[in-house]
Amino acid sequence: MTPDASDSLRGRPLYPCGQPLRQLPRPAALVVLGATGSIGRQTLELVTRFPDHWEVVAVAVRSRVAELTDLLTHLAQIQPTAKPPLVAVTDEAAHAKAAVRGDLGGRLLPAGAAALVAAVTAPEHVDCVVNGVVGAVGLAPTIAAAERGVRIALANKESLVVGGELVRAAVRSGGAELLPVDSEHSAIAQCLSGRQPEEIEKLVLTASGGPFRTMPAEKLREVTVQEVLAHPTWNMGPKITVDSATLMNKGLEVIEAHHLFGVPYRDIDVVVHPGSYVHSCVTFRDGAVMAQLGSPDMRVPLMYAMAGEKRWPLAAERLDLLRIGTLCFEPPDLERFVCLRLAREAGEAGGTAPIVLNAANEVAVAALLEGRLRYVDIASVIASTLAAMPQGSVASVTEALAIDAAARREAEASLIRLVRNAT
Ligand code: MG
Residue 160's domain spans which residues? Predict the structure, then answer.
């Protein structure tokens, strides 16, 4: 996409800015994708807290069958009169394990990535889908939910990074309602309450800066996986924690924000805010700045999305301004955190570039977690994959996923070359 095309997006956000949200029935039929992950568990916590509002009709997990069993037992207790939910297990081996248990009967959907889509399409009735899946695999179920015209509480940022334009088209044609769960985008959505898109001048995404915010470049060469996984403020899954340490997470969020709010890249700033109290801000065209503050608790943005921007009572930790005393902000260091720069450039290039960026990052992060790649080499793998892959446009989900697969192969090859040259 050219910067001009990007400009034309202003005023046409994917997020239903300034529009009334639909009233869901009570209980609302809920699908939880990534049900045993960080977002999924917190979704189930909210269902437990507000059992009259929700009826879980399908859950999808990758491989944690033991945790799935506990989850289903728990659901049977909190929604005793409801039909037991459909169950998707995407990992083949884990699916085989789930199938031999027998008690899932006809409720177990076929294995593979298609199971995520089936979890959205197979239930008789669906009102809301929480997509808490990690990675590009989350795109197809987001599209399916968009086509089904339901409310999507989106925590899978790759849906918009990999398929921003495709999701936009599917949401429009299906009449769906897409609400962000990511804390920064939820903060922006909260700041936009009652506003019109044309009133926005600038978005400011805050970043905690991760565990290496103040670490000198030469020290970054030696950091261990354990240090990478020790995030200072948020408690999240391993993939997103690594992304937070490289600031790739913020880069992906810039792309996500561009699609969600229809704001050109040059008007999306990133500011490092180590306390993570300010979750993000909007500057309006009259100069007023709105910020959303709170303790870092994902249940707040999650519930805001699920409940259609209603504020239900929640025992989240209250922010004590006097205890905080000072709010600190600093610019991100793009020399040390190359991933943030790469993500912004890929977003501005548009087309296949964000898909390649994301695929290479997923490969590099998996290699880091397996102990095959150093932290500092993540950016090198992404940069060389972006340089090797041809740039073009993307017309369908199938095409997007084919580019994703090709980029993964290229990233793996580049990773092997890099590791070989280093030894
Ligand atoms: Mg975030």
Answer: 5-182
Q: Which long-range contacts (CB under 8 A, 24 or more apart) does 69-75 make?
A: 69/101, 71/35, 71/36, 71/44, 74/44, 74/48, 75/44, 75/47
Considering the domain architecture, whether residues 178 and 192 belong to the same structural domain is answered as no
Task: Report how far ligand 1's centroid is from the alpha carbon of 270 (Å).
Answer: 12
Q: Do residue 152 and residue 17 come from a single domain? A: yes
Question: Ligand 1 mean position to 280 CA, how many Å?
Answer: 10
| Total count of domains within the chain | 3
Last residue in a domain, options 182, 208, 231: 182
For 117-162, the pLDDT digits (tens) are 999 999 999 999 999 999 899 999 999 999 999 999 999 999 999 9
Centre of ligand 1 to C-alpha 49, Å, is 24
Predicted TM-score (pTM) of the model is: 0.93
Ligand 1 centroid, distance to 184 Cα (angstroms): 5
Over residues 278-333, the pLDDT tens digits come to: 999 999 999 999 999 999 999 999 999 999 999 999 999 999 999 999 999 999 99
CATH of the domain at 370: 1.10.1740.10
